[in-house]
Specification:
outer membrane lipoprotein receptor (LolB), chain A; 2 helices; about 10% helix
């Protein structure tokens, strides 16, 4: 069974959106690319509590085919414990619609067929993004990591709740989530951001090859 963090990661990294009319505001409709725009970056996710911080960071890249790779290496500051594997990766090969969950410590790769509706072969369109964001609150625009982003307060199921997550999408990168903020059920404040972003740069093909010597589990 695919792990919950993999599903969450794929949705956050690959989902898109846009907005048409939210309340009395009309969201500016920036054009969306019809082809995948490659990039090279680092993704950093911090879980903050009163006891310390847990940082999960690593390379995050996408190629011209829309395939994506992210490595997740964890570091703890303070007494906050590490739970589970501390060096993992996820590789989504879009043309084959296959996800590989990689455990670098145990040298194990778990293969899954990706079934989430957001993991389509083509970039999300502006209209599709608009439909996904229709119940969310538009927060405006900001330049984050060098690209213009649109921010939304996301209401799951269309219902406004305390501590609803916030996400900033880059239309020029097929609505890539460049920054997000949420609170977990355990009371952790989780802030994720994409740093050192280089849009248009094709990543090293080695990111999309499985390492030799790893056991493949289907």
């Amino acid at each position: 069974m695919i792990r919950p963090w993999v599903i969450t990661l794929l949705v956050l990294l690959l989902a898109g959106g846009s907005g048409v009319s939210l309340g009395q505001e009309s969201v500016p409709r920036e054009p969306a690319p019809t082809q995948w725009v490659p990039f090279v970056a680092e993704k950093v996710e911090e879980s903050r509590t009163d006891y310390g911080r847990l940082t999960v960071a690593g390379a995050y890249v996408r190629n011209k085919d829309g395939s994506e790779y992210r490595r997740r290496t964890a570091h703890s500051t303070g007494p906050l414990p590490l739970v589970g594997a501390t060096d993992e990766g996820i590789l989504y090969v879009r043309p084959q619609n296959v996800t590989y969950e990689i455990d670098f410590r145990r040298k194990i790769v778990i293969r899954h067929v990706a079934k989430h509706p957001d993991l389509g072969p083509e970039p999300i369109t502006r209209d599709e993004f608009d439909k996904q964001r229709v119940t969310d609150d538009f927060l405006g625009k900001q330049v984050i990591s060098g690209v213009e982003c649109e921010g939304y307060r996301i209401h799951h199921g269309g219902k406004k709740k305390k501590n609803d997550p916030e996400a900033w999408f880059a239309p020029s990168l097929s609505f890539l989530v460049v920054k997000s903020q949420r609170r977990t059920s355990e009371g952790f404040d989780v802030v994720a951001s994409i740093d050192n972003l280089e849009p248009g740069k094709e990543p090293d093909p080695a990111f999309f090859r499985l390492s030799e010597g790893f056991k493949l589990v289907k």
